[in-house]
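job 3f2a | input accepted
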Amino acid sequence: MAESATAKQDIGKTSFEDALTELERIVRELESGKGDLETSIEAYEKGMVLKQHCEAKLKEAQAKIEKITVSEDGSVKTSGFDVE
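job 3f2a | predicted structure (84 res):
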């Protein structure tokens, strides 16, 4: 079963930290192997949506980070942060 649009919207409002905490809980639950198949599939699907949400939040944060440099004359310059 695919995540409903409402569930995706609810996750979209979730902070990165809360989404990551929930994703970690789901991973522990799935690794334990204690749930039935249907519950495990639903948890996996929610986990995928949470993973995508966390990745989007990280990309958003990365785009906001700026590299600050000070030139020899003392002027300050900012530029995009290149992670590679």
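job 3f2a | The longest strand covers residues 66-70.
job 3f2a | closed
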